[in-house]
Amino acid sequence: MHVHLLQHSPHQGPARIADWLASMGHSHTVFHLDAGELPPRLADGDALIVLDGPEGSLETERCPWLRGERKLILQALNGNKPLLGIGFGARLIAEALGAVVARGSVAETGWHRVDLAPLSPVDLPDTFEAFMWHREVFALPDYALALGRSEASPLQGFTWDDGRVVGLLCHLEATADSVRALLDHQAPPEGSPTSPHAQDRAAMLDDPRRFDRLAPLLDRLLSQWLHSTAAA
Q: Where is the Glutamine amidotransferase domain (predicted)?
């Protein structure tokens, strides 16, 4: 398979997703619409991944490149393409499906427990720890199934159209290097200094095994995501 990835910041890349795609024999191309690149043609790829990006407004007046990205997401939703969004990408997908996207009550950064939703079709443990970096949240789109929740965020993700479309608020793709890049170059989500659900740098990086434990979770999620479409 060949996968298109949309990246919105030099410091919020595919991280472990790129390694997983290569290990499974899939090729991929990364596009930077925010830097003036043209959107990819969906017909030239087999799936689309929309990565994390800036917090805050989704207004096209502030980010004119969003017009083309929204169009591409709608094409993927309507064209039976596998579609995965993470963070900012999941917000765009939720918005395209008619769900409310808004600022959450508190920022959520660092490592937090996710409880899988009772009806979640995703093959993940009932509870697991994932990396967070957000203040913005989204509601559950119509006809979607909730993935799970954390203490600060009632919805940590969703699936839609029998698993063909997946939106994740949490980050299963995070690595120690990708988190360092965030901390070194990206401003923390609004309200992080006063949030009870925001960790400091030391807490985020103190245990490298946390990142190792994310790897099999990402593998299970991506394998099920692509397999569900191939089996359809």
A: 17-176
